[in-house]
Amino acid sequence: MFAAVDLGSNSFRLHIGSHEGTAIRVIRSARDPIRLAAGLDQDGNLTPEAMQRAIACLARFKEILASYAIDSVRVVATNTIRIAKNAADFLPAAEAAIGLPIEVISGEEEGRLIYLGVSNSLAIPAERRLVIDIGGGSTEIILGRGHEIVKVESFGMGTVKHSSHYFPQGVITEEGFDAAVLAVRSLLEDATPAYQPEFWRNAYGSSGTVRAISDALYKNGFGDAEVTLEKLQALRAYCIQRGQIDDLNLQGIKPERVAMVIGGLAILIGLFQELNIQVLQPIEAGLRMGVMWDLYLRSTKRDRREQAVLDVLNLFRADLNRAKLVADMSRSLFAQLKPASDYLSNYVYWSALLHEVGMVVSHTGYHKHGSYLVENADIPGFTTREQKLMSRLVLSQKGNLRKLGDAFADADFAKAVLALRLAVSFMHSRVELDYMDFSLKMKSKIELELKPDWVSLHPTVAFWLRKEIECWREIGIDFVVRARV
After folding, report:
1. Cα distance between residue 81 and residue 86, in whole Å
2. Which alpha helices (H) appear in 377-459, and where do they start and end?
3. Residue 198 CB burial class (10 angstroms; 0-12, 13-18, ≥19)
4. pTM for this model (two decimals)
5. Are 51 and 93 in contact (CB under 8 A)?
6. Are residues 80 and 29 part of one domain?
7. What 3 state SS string does the chain have?
8. What contacts 208, CB < 8 A, 6 or more positions away?
């Protein structure tokens, strides 16, 4: 059983689902219209009131999650928390309320998860498709074929800002609609050539916004549930004729959602015009379903992060053989150090694979360049927090250890750094590890026991070990090397 919690710009949502056959069946869902994006003040900070609403909601979600036997759960945060200047102040309290880490995902990662949910729900293997998701704070556009993503982009336009900016005080005018649509088209114009109909067969709208607009069209006499530009323009004309959001009588749309639907309508019209969409089919699946599918795939050892790391290696032209050698040694050394949990094991392996990507910039200080690239590159499947963790490990592979600050308060992180540094040193010395030749421990100090003739067989190891001993002693950790009796 899997659970996905989506901290969206408009609503916080929860799905609990079970994998059955070829599908994930949702067995419990919950939604709370937090309006987080509307809770940003003029300086870009979340207001205390908005944060309190969010924290109260997360505490309720925690109670729901506790009543199910869930194998794995992920909490993902999207645009508003991505851009909120005081997000770092909000997140610790939010994580305490729900009792889980919160992953702030990039817009591109959000798009990939959305597509993962859509593609698995459609189960049409080779279909070339366009997927659009209009959220409260951002809009994602994804081009794909079957389960494969061809291109994904995120645009900083959402229903909350569009509604408040172009329809102030709820006043709906033709001029306001024209300006709202023009803003969308202007933002999209550089990207549109890649998403024209020649590259896809069917278009889908995955967000609650698209489904709400589809309901409004069908339930208010504008036609069936299929979305076309003609129907959208008819709905637009009706809204302008009414002139005020509070005066709209849209069957099937909750009154508190009407303002968001108007902003979404302007965005959708702009998308239709710029991308030359003829028909858009609403679909129920989206981000939360994608998160649950991602959890399911990880549980079956089909973790898409594995391929993503290899793609980055290829992109930055790193030496795959050296990378795999260091990665295998790092993981083995880390296991020998007996960490308290295996949480860091994959990150040690992936960081080791990526340890030389900085050489694409310069061979001097490549660990610093690599650290920057790993933290800031678009690596599918990884959250911002995960990339920061791997960035620190890549940075730690050589040079002084003072640059890592108080990170060594985490004993397992210290073991991860030691494993990676030794693996890099052994790779340089062309060592083929035989774990019968040595033993490695790290508690209050580092203890490395070697077979008496081991250093003589690998002469340059002595040079690297002397440097390591100095570096660890600089931060107050003794590193003892002795011959095995």
Report:
1. 9
2. 384-396, 411-428, 454-457
3. exposed
4. 0.80
5. yes
6. yes
7. CEEEEEECCCCEEEEEEEEECCEEEEEEEEEECCCCHHHECCCCCECHHHHHHHHHHHHHHHHHHHCCCCCEEEEEECHHHHHCCCHHHHHHHHHHHHCCCEEECCHHHHHHHHHHHHHHHHCCCCCEEEEEEECCCCEEEEEEECCEEEEEEEECCCHHHHHHHHCHHHECCHHHHHHHHHHHHHHHCCCHHHHCHHHCCEEEECCHHHHHHHHHHHHCCCCCCCECHHHHHHHHHHHHHHCEHHHCCCCCCCHHHHHHHHHHHHHHHHHHHHHCCCCEEECCCCHHHHHHHHHHHHHCCCCHHHHHHHHHHHHCCCCHHHHHHHHHHHHHHHHHCCCCCCCCHHHHHHHHHCCCHHHHCCCCCHHHHHHHHHHHCCCCCCCHHHHHHHHHHHHHCCCCCHHHHHHHHCHHHHHHHHHHHHHHHHHHCCCCCCCCCEEEEECCCEEEEECCCHHHHCCHHHHHHHHHHHHHHHCCCCEEEEECC
8. 10, 11, 286
The candidate with the shortest Cα–Cα distance to 381, out of 300, 331, 286, 307, is 307
Q: What's the structural domain count of the chain?
A: 3
User: Are residue 341 and residue 401 in the same domain, yes or no?
Assistant: yes
* CATH number of the domain to which 205 belongs: 3.30.420.150
Backbone torsions φ then ψ of 190, nearest 5 degrees = -70, -25
Residue type, 402: R
What is the sign of the dihedral through the CA atoms of 309, 314, 319 and 320? positive
| pLDDT tens sequence across 316-338 | 999 999 999 999 999 999 999 99
Q: Hey, what are 428's tokens?
A: 């340089």
Mean pLDDT of 381-391: 88
Neighbours of 406 (CB within 10 A): 6
pLDDT digits (tens, 9 = 90+) for 397-422: 999 999 998 888 899 999 999 999 99
Q: Please, are residues 218 and 224 in contact by the beta-carbon 8 Å criterion?
A: yes
Q: Strand, coil or helix: what is 431?
A: coil
Residues 403 and 427 reside in one and the same domain: yes
Residue 94: give the domain boundaries: 2-104
**Is residue 417 a contact partner of residue 345, using CB atoms and an 8 Å limit?**
no
One domain for residues 343 and 262: no
